[in-house]
Amino acid sequence: MISKCLFPVAGYGTRFLPATKSMPKEMLPVVNKPLVQYGVEEALGAGLSEIGFVTGRGKRAIADHFDVSYELEHQIAGSSKEDYLASIRDVMAKGSFSFTRQREMRGLGDAILNGRRLIGDQPFGVVLSDDLCVADEGVLSQMVKLYKQFRCSIVAVQEVPKEDISKFGVIAGKQIKDGLYQVDNMVEKPEPEDAPSNLAIIGRYILTPDIFEIIENTPPGKNNEVQLTDALLTQAKNGCVLAYKFKGRRFDCGSVAGFVNATNYVYENLYTQD
Ligand code: G1P
User: Fold this and answer.
1) Which of 21, 61, 118, 230 is deepest in the core (most CB within 10 A)?
2) Is 182 exposed, middle or buried (0-12, 13-18, 19+ CB in 10 A)?
3) Helical pair 86-94 and 35-45, crossing angle rounded to 10 deg
4) How many Å lie between the centroid of ligand 1 and the Cα of residue 160?
5) Residue 170 Cβ < 6 Å to ligand 1
6) Structural domain harbouring 215
């Protein structure tokens, strides 16, 4: 019923230069696994097995990561080193992977619109892999359950301190049950004094496919980019968008400090190999 998940991965990763000069930021390892693989595992865990990447120039390593490496397989076949490939083999067995390119960086809304050809006319998940989420039940799984109940677009939100609010899309809405809001306002990266609440959007979405046409009709907004937040506000006004205060922790791996925190957390709590 909902089986596809889009990963916009065209961003440059300037904050991690020089590490990202010739390597996609999504391939930076959090301990021993590339950042993007955590997001893909979360999507697969939610039953979204058709993974679509909206890539750009210089992102081929991502496509290679989710494909067979014959040389490597040949070299370590039958040795104990095969264990190190277990997680990626599992991901490859469960998922299918498609790619399309965003030629110009015109914002998250535009990236999603570029993914239309991979999605077609069905609801889908979106993962911004910079946001690494850890939770007992994956954040996307939590959201898919809600989607089955409400059948409308859902954004994941988290309370953030006022001084950080201008890094995010921010929602306001009517609480319809504990931790769930019907959105009536949404602002992309407001000044703290203009923020409609302290509920910030984090990089997990379930979108209904009418969002594509709405994006097509959404003019560039903040930073002269086509903002998904603006399109979602239109969708909220015409119908329904929910904001869900997810259960779990989120690390901002788009910042160096957040990346280091995620690394420490994963190493201490999730890493199992000797
Ligand atoms: C994007 C969205 C923003 C959201 C954020 C979550 O911004 O535009 O609404 O709050 O992701 O990480 P970006 O961080 O890509 O600038």
Assistant:
1) 230
2) middle
3) 50
4) 13
5) no
6) 4-273
For residue 18, the CA-to-ligand 1 centroid distance in Å is: 23
Minimal-distance CA residue to ligand 1 atom 10: 168
- Residue 78 has what pLDDT? 87
Cis peptide before 18 (omega within 30 of 0): yes
Mean pLDDT, residues 54-64:
93
Would you say the CB of residue 112 lies under 6 angstroms from ligand 1? no
Model confidence pTM above 0.85 = yes
To test the ligand 1 pocket, which listed residue (168, 211, 218, 246) has its Cβ within 8 A of the most ligand atoms? Answer: 168
Does ligand 1 come within 6 angstroms of the Cβ of 202? yes
Pocket test for ligand 1, best of 201, 207, 252, 255 (most atoms within 8 A of CB): 201
pLDDT (tens digit, 9 = 90+) per residue, 249-267?
A: 999 999 999 999 999 999 9
CATH of the domain at 105: 3.90.550.10
Is residue 11 within 6 Å of ligand 1 at its C-beta? no
Task: Please give the backbone phi and psi of residue 159, each rounded to the nearest 5 degrees, phi first.
Answer: -75, 135
17: CB partners within 8 A, 6+ apart: none
What is the three-class DSSP state of 35? Answer: helix
Classify residue 105 by its DSSP letter.
Answer: -
Q: Three-state DSSP class for 116?
A: helix
Q: Is the CB of 66 under 6 A from ligand 1?
A: no
Determine the pLDDT at residue 7: 98
Nearest of 179, 54, 202 to residue 114 by alpha carbon: 54
How many domains are contained in the chain? 1
Q: Which residue type occupies 236?
A: A
Please tell me if the CB atom of residue 171 comes closer than 6 angstroms to any atom of ligand 1. Answer: no
Q: Give dist(CA 227, CA 71) in Å, integer.
A: 42
